Amino acid sequence: MIRFIAADLRRLWLGAVVVVLLVALATALGVTVTLQERALRLGSARAADKFDLVIGAAGSETQLVLSSIFLQPAPLPLMPGEVLAKLSKDPRVAWAAPVGFGDSFAGYPLVGTTRALIGSTVSGFAEGRMFEKEGEAVVGAAVKLPVGAEVKPMHGTAQMGGETHAGVVYHVTGKLPPTGTPWDRAILVPIQAVWHVHGLGHDHGHEEEEEHHQGEAQVTQAAAATDEHGHTPLEAAREHAEDHQHEGEAAAAGRPDEDHDHHGGIDADAVIDENFAADAPGLPAVLVKPKTIADAYKLRQEYRNGNTLAVFPGEVLTGLYATLGDAKMVLSAVAAGSQGLVAAALVLVTVTHIGQRRRQIGALRAFGAPRLSVFAIVWLELFLLVALGIGLGFLTGLAAARLIANAFTVKSGIVLPVGFTGEDLRLALILLAASAVLSAVPAILAYRQSPAAALRA
Amino acid sequence: MLELAVDGLAVAFPGLDAPVLVVEHLALRPSEHVAVTGGSGSGKSTFINVITGLERPTSGKVLWSGKDITRLSETARDRWRAEHVGLVMQDFHLFPGLSAVENVLLPARLARVADKALIARAHDLLNGVGLSRPDQKIETMSRGEMQRVAIARAVLRKPGVIVADEPTASLDVEAGETVGRLLLDMATETKSMLIVVSHDQRLIDRLDRRITLRAGRIVADSFREEVAA
Amino acid sequence: MEKLFSLGFNRRSVLGLAAAAPLLAATRSAVAADSLGFGELYGKYSVLGLEFSEKVKKLAGRQVAIRGFMAPPLKAEAAFFVLTEVPMALCPFCSSDADWPDNIIVVYLDEKQTFTQPSQTIEVRGKLEFGSWTDPETGFVSLLRLRQAEYGTV
Fold first, then answer.
1. Helix (H/G/I), strand (E/B), else coil: C131
2. Which of A130, A250, B36, C153 lies 20 to 30 Å from A328, alpha-carbon distance?
3. Residue A370: which of B79, B89, B98 has the nearest Cβ?
4. How far apart are CA C114 and CA A41, in angstroms?
5. Cα–Cα distance for residue pair A27/B26, rounded to 1 Å
6. What is the residue extent of each domain of chain B?
């Protein structure tokens, strides 16, 4: 019987291939939508998993989470620095870390933060060590910069026509292990440095600084490196300006007047101070790790007043999942529509096909093939094709979802976990059962005529 | 060994005034070689279909060695036919994609009765009908060769009756000659009854008995003169 | 086929089924589950703060059913959520100055999952557990929990 079916399918191979491909494509469409939606949901959930509570200035919850957790570049309103000081002292808080953004380098966002945040969200370093000084930086796993590389931040992004901060250079001291989050693509620097670069925090004399830019280019890079602590920020800025010239990247440094005049510089060797006082500069967001679940909810409640906004990334994502679910419904409806068309086409094809095979079926019966054998032949032939199509569709869907997920990961740093779950197994079984029933229709039709009538046809 | 008794048989189709076949009484002896002749629409095919159980008559009995196959269910008739009837048809009804021997064995395999002995017999039969390549694909064969495969298939399970419907009509003279001879040889060898519907005078002449149908009725039933004489 | 397919892909109906299934399961075990109200969780305020009620102590380790609201999820994908007596908008955490509010309970499920919008009343069944415990995965401390819980809308 298997030989018979095989011979039959070989004879009708073109039709068989078309049926398999149609079923595979229709299945793949639905599977891709399901897998992709789930992957986006779980991937974003896992990317936000390390961060429990975000506190920012009053504004959009979604924007706050997208900017501070998913590092999407967008201007956030600032809240007073005293919020951070208050949170740092709060007994319900395990740690509170400010984040500051706005700069980028080679397409990677620069995020100013604290050692506490890095230390408590990733375990150890893949390479190198934590930043210890203001001019040092730590890079995420997906940042293609080696330890020791220089980072010259640019205000905004290159696409937005950002300008290089004159005289600001960070040295990469460590690389973090992969986390599957957008932070893998981030360059992490001390928040203090971000403040200083943007002329916040401590007093900087901009005029004075500009004068130093004009200063003589005598100090070499080596000399700068061996300098001891205790430089004034101004001196550090001058040295870095000279570095630029040495490296032929003198555009910014050579024409210091074009520098954003509200910008300051950093003192590369300054010790990092992470005990934030109430007079700390304004902040876009603070990430908070509460001690207990009750603390988490209490803090959320407490900081949801007129001036600040406290939100769990989880609740914002859950809200987004509802939208994602709706989008998936629409796509699923499209997929289901195409599957419906394929199913209808399949029924049409098989019924016609059975009509053409009446003689063959009649002959089989005339020569004494038992009813069950005839039924099994017709049923198996169709079912095998559809089952093969469904199997192929699931694999194609998986492959497509993987491709999309990989492209997404490269762009965003968020790792999307694409994979089948028990739910998919159930769907596959339902599909197979349905196609088993569908395949039985022509098999039953095949027997609804006397063999003599079938032979005459 | 089977014998046939037909009693009060009538086949009518709705919408037609006259029945297409009426046979009051007919008896065929075991191992008898019978030709059924008649013009187009004389009821030959209906007669064959009814006595092989491919079609159910409107009324009457078809008794094969005392068993009335008209009373059997469709499935039971299919099973009975598989066991007792060897069919050879004008356009062969062989299955492309399968080899000669696979075609011979197909009905037996589908009925799950193909054992080693039967497989050996299939090869012997193909040899016997003059085909030396049992693994040749059926679609690469000539029409005469195809009909020989069909004969091997018909006699595989040593049926009590071999029924051939115009076995030589689509063949050239030479191939028809071979097929006719093979049919007779095989029927003699297995001591089967042989019923041949044919226009082929040379084939008819070699059979013992000739039944002529016209407008659904037997109008002549004669034994071959040489034998009768 | 297409009908079944779309049914399979219809998120709402699947979720509906998924939500109904545990309820059915819960209905079956209804005899075994004692119902517990938020008002019955704590006995008296002592100098040490809240003290668990006799009922909680008696039911610890047993299957209980409790109704409430799912608070906005602290984690998008988690094996736990917070059940509150009143919807979050009504400020369940404002009422008490205690370290652990008297109208919340942490619900642990068997598997990690993402959640849908919390707005409906739900009934949760699970094994009652009290006392301070630190979740090794999230580092969160909780005082009152339901373990191996199932939930469904009411």
1. strand
2. C153
3. B79
4. 8
5. 61
6. 4-228
At B102 the pLDDT is 92
Of B55, B79, B98, the CB nearest to A3: B98
pLDDT value of position C34:
81
**If you measure CA to CA, which chain A residue comes closest to C93?**
A298
Q: Is the Cβ pair A368, B107 closer than 8 Å?
A: yes
Give the end of a domain, one of A293, A312, A331: A312
**End residue of a domain, out of A312, A346, A363:** A312
3-state secondary structure of A414: coil
* Same domain as A71, residue A211: yes
B69 in Cβ contact with B77 (< 8 Å)? yes
The pLDDT value recorded for residue A211 is 39
Q: Which residues 120-149 of chain B have a CB within 8 Å of chain A? A: none
**Sorting pLDDT into bands at 50, 70 and 90, what band is C90?**
low
- Which of chain B's residues have a Cβ under 8 Å away from the Cβ of A380? none
Residue linked to tokens 């040495």:
A246
Q: Which amino acid is at C110?
A: D
Q: Chain B: nearest CA to A12, how far in angstroms?
A: 10
Measure A13 CA to nearest chain C CA, in Å: 24
Instruction: Verify that A295 and A394 share a domain, yes or no.
Output: no
Q: How far is CA C9 from each of CA A71, A236, A337, A425, C15, rounded to the nearest angstrom? A: 32, 61, 12, 13, 10
* ipTM higher than threshold 0.85: no
pLDDT digit string (tens) for A399-456?
999 999 999 988 888 889 998 988 889 989 988 998 888 888 877 877 777 777 777 6
Choices 3.40.50.300, 3.40.50.2020, 3.30.70.330, 3.30.420.40: CATH for B4-228: 3.40.50.300
Q: How many CB atoms lie within 10 A of CB C39?
A: 10
Question: What CATH number is attached to the domain comprising C140?
Answer: 2.40.50.140
- Nearest by CB to residue A292, choosing from C71, C116, C140, is C140
What does the pLDDT average to over A184-189?
Answer: 91
DSSP per-residue letters across A236-280: HHHHHHHHHHHTT--HHHHSGGGS-TT-----TTPBP-----TTP
List chains touching C (3+ CB pairs under 8 A): A
Instruction: Name the residue of chain A whose CA is nearest to B104's CA.
Output: A367
Q: How far is B42 from chain A (nearest CA, A)?
A: 16
**Residue-wise pLDDT tens digits, A36-76:** 999 998 999 988 888 889 999 988 889 999 888 888 878 88
Buried b (16+ CB within 10 A) or exposed e, A208-233: ebeebbeeeeeeeeeebeeeeeebeb
Residues of A in contact with C106 (CB under 8 A): 293
Is A145 exposed, middle or buried (CB count within 10 Å of its CB: 0-12, 13-18, 19+)?
middle
User: Does B110 contact chain A (CB < 8 Å)?
Assistant: yes
8 Å CB contact of A367 and B153: yes
**Secondary structure letter of residue A416 according to DSSP:** P
Examine the domain organization and report whether A67 and A100 are in the same domain. Answer: yes
Of A357, A343, A384, the C-alpha closest to A447 is: A357
